[in-house]
């Protein structure tokens, strides 16, 4: 399950495979952010807007797990993504 969080200048894509913490799978600013958003739309990946969370996630290195301090905020994003996609997370040990 992937999720894209964006504001007007930055887009962050999160990926969660059911084990460990979600990872930042893509991030970009300006035209790159617009491309990330377009790809998400073309692939029916849920998109939400949260300027504060996007700013925090933009500080996480690409392909790195999100820090524990952002778990609660990102859980809310993942819940949103699963609800609108109609899917259930596959939790793995």
From TrEMBL:
Pfam families: Bac_export_2 (PF01312)
Swiss-Prot/TrEMBL keywords: Bacterial flagellum protein export, Protein transport, Transport
GO BP annotation list: protein secretion
Top-level taxonomic group: Bacteria
Keyword match Transport: yes
Cellular component terms (Gene Ontology): plasma membrane
SUPFAM superfamilies, per the entry: EscU C-terminal domain-like (SSF160544)
Zinc-finger listed as a keyword: no
UniProt-listed InterPro entries: T3SS_substrate_exporter, T3SS_substrate_exporter_C
PANTHER family: FLAGELLAR BIOSYNTHETIC PROTEIN FLHB (PTHR30531:SF12)
Function per UniProt: Required for formation of the rod structure in the basal body of the flagellar apparatus. Together with FliI and FliH, may constitute the export apparatus of flagellin.
Record-stated family: Belongs to the type III secretion exporter family.
Full protein name: Flagellar biosynthetic protein FlhB
Organism from which the protein derives: Hydrogenovibrio marinus
């Amino acid at each position: 399950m992937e999720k894209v969080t964006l504001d007007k200048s930055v887009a962050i894509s999160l990926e969660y495979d059911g084990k460990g913490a979600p990872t930042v799978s893509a991030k970009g600013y300006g035209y790159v952010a617009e491309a990330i958003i377009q790809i998400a739309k073309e692939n029916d990946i849920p998109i939400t807007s949260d300027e504060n969370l996007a700013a925090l996630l933009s500080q996480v290195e690409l392909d790195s797990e999100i820090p524990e301090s952002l778990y609660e905020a990102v859980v809310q994003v993942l819940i949103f993504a699963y609800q609108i996609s109609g899917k259930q997370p596959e939790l793995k040990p």
